[in-house]
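RECORD TYPE: inverse folding
INPUT: structure tokens
STRUCTURE:
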């Protein structure tokens, strides 16, 4: 079994620093390609490349966040600690020796491209490695070489010199770490064989050396994701599955939740030659994308319930209720997955389904879960969180929670409405049995008509009174069917907002790009910060009580947290099939 632990040889890191000055003789070779995968030996099981990071290091250095750190109580406390004093002393020692601060060093090292490639090694857990650094200007490295040179006599007895392909001098430390450099690039390798292959590729030799960029899985990943990104990474799944006996894991999963959420993606990955990731960043947006190859249709009918069908409605978008905090949408053929559970799940978990059905039969007598209930529901389940009012109370609870709602799409609306209404009433009745233990009076089930939609809800016969009411008073359950949707909410006002949304016809533009998204998660920073701010006193008190901080430190921590959360406009995660594969994408947009 292959393990992708980073190489733990400390000498590799030490040598990578020292090599800036060890090679006094620089010989001409062919210029290295901007794409380091073209000068990286083939056969890597993992590859990662970062390019042009210097501009973003500069933005971070000059950001308000970094400027505010010296006055942050947590930062001040760290530098006052023994560990902080040692870290600060180490930073000063490095900066004094190099004649530049760490920000400048980072911008120099990451001005061009940096790559790491790992290679499987039989009989050893740790992989072999090739690290390449290619900066924009050779003069920047020359400055570092000059400042590091006085330290070299300390390790010169451990260094030997040979000549590699392209007449490039290669330094090795105890024959375990090999380093070469020329002009604006440096290469470090854990074996002489990998170093020679890397130098041959850089010299443009025609001896038959193959580059990673020519490996079929890497070619497929590049075609699918492109090559121009701030950062990208690659895992050769063919090598991984080969090392694991042909699969990433068992064909049948032993966790129903994992099967429903990730089973399709997991099976698709077992047939994909690669797992690729990219990172893109602009002034207000970050996009982190993961991708594998293969269409969902290629892995058989039994996995079809776990993907959105091509050409049919997919996850869509969250309902735009006032002050939306966030939520998620899961698109699955729930009835189809349940029907095929014996094909998809390990036999040892199947008896749990029988227990579940037996328990549900007590709540919904005469209804079979697999043949009556699930087929009447649609293929989409939505969860929403949004602010709520507290008109049902005279005071607000001590901890103020947002309103929550689950929305079922209905495949057979009339049948599903009866089932879900019965479920709502049964759950509300059972909850009332525990009202005394929860410190509240029982709900009285009632109903009202809102825009010709009947809403049933639980209410108190008298408005509860008192300061800092228990958390249970955040909830006053409500339910309604709106066309082909059934809403169950923790507050009446959120239920009404969802009725408004679902009564409003949706419009789509002809130019909109069709998607096959089967999952969506979205969070709005401003609305989340408002909820946190409403509970600021509790957050500060918990920090003081549980973490032993002073009141001033707790206030500063919460202020910093709110600033960070408000800075995020939206955080969005989507998964879905594309033309050539399957994509998982995280997008963050900030102010």
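DESIGNED SEQUENCE:
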């Amino acid at each position: 079994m292959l393990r992708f632990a980073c190489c733990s040889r400390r000498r590799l890191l030490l040598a990578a620093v020292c090599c800036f000055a060890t090679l006094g003789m620089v010989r001409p070779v062919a210029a290295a390609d901007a794409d380091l995968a073209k000068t990286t030996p083939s056969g890597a099981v993992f590859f990662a490349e970062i390019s042009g990071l210097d501009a973003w290091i500069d933005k971070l250095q000059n950001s308000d966040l970094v400027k505010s750190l010296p006055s942050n109580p947590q930062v001040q406390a760290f530098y006052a600690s023994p560990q902080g004093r040692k870290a600060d002393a180490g930073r000063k020692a490095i900066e004094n020796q190099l004649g530049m601060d760490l920000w400048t060093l980072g911008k120099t090292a990451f001005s061009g491209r940096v790559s790491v490639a790992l290679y499987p090694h039989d009989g050893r857990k740790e992989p072999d490695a090739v690290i390449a650094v290619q900066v924009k200007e050779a003069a920047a490295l020359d400055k570092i070489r000059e400042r590091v040179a006085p330290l070299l006599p300390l390790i010169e007895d451990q260094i030997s010199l040979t000549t590699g392909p392209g007449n490039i001098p290669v330094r090795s430390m105890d024959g375990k770490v090999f380093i070469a450099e020329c002009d604006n690039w440096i290469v470090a390798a854990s074996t002489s064989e990998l170093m020679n292959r890397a130098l041959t590729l850089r010299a443009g030799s025609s001896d038959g050396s193959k580059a990673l960029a020519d490996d079929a899985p890497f070619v497929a990943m590049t075609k699918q994701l492109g090559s121009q990104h701030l950062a990208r990474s690659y895992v050769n799944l063919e090598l991984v599955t080969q090392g694991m006996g042909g699969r990433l894991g068992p064909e049948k999963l032993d966790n129903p939740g994992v099967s429903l959420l990730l089973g399709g993606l997991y099976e698709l990955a077992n047939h994909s030659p690669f797992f690729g990731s990219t990172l893109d960043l602009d002034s207000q947006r970050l996009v982190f994308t993961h991708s594998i190859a293969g269409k969902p249709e290629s892995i058989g009918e039994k996995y079809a319930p776990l993907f959105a069908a091509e050409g049919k409605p997919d996850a869509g978008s969250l309902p735009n209720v006032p002050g939306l905090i966030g939520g998620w949408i899961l698109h699955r053929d729930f009835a189809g997955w349940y029907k095929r559970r014996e094909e998809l799940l390990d036999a040892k978990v199947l008896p749990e389904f029988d227990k579940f059905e037996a328990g549900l039969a007590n709540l919904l007598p005469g209804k079979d879960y697999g043949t009556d209930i699930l087929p009447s529901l649609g293929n989409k389940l939505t969860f929403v969180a949004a602010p709520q009012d507290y008109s049902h109370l005279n005071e607000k609870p001590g901890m103020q929670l947002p309103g929550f709602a689950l929305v079922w799409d209905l495949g057979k609306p009339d049948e599903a409405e009866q089932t879900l209404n019965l479920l709502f009433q049964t759950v509300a009745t059972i909850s009332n049995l525990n009202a005394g233990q929860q410190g509240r009076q029982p709900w009285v089930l009632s109903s009202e008509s809102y825009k010709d939609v009947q809403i049933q809800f639980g209410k108190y016969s008298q408005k509860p009174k008192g300061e800092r009411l228990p958390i249970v008073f955040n909830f006053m359950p409500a339910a309604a069917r709106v066309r082909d949707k059934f809403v169950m909410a923790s507050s009446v006002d959120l239920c009404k907002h969802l009725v408004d949304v679902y009564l409003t016809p949706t419009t789509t533009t002809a130019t909109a790009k069709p998607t096959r998204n089967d999952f969506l998660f979205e969070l709005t920073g401003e609305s989340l910060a408002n909820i946190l701010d409403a509970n600021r006193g509790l957050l500060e008190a918990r920090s003081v009580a549980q973490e032993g901080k002073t009141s001033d430190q707790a206030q500063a921590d919460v202020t910093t947290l709110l600033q960070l959360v408000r800075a995020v406009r939206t955080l969005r995660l989507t998964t879905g099939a594309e033309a050539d594969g399957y994509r998982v994408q995280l997008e963050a947009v900030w102010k």
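NOTES: The mean pLDDT is 86.
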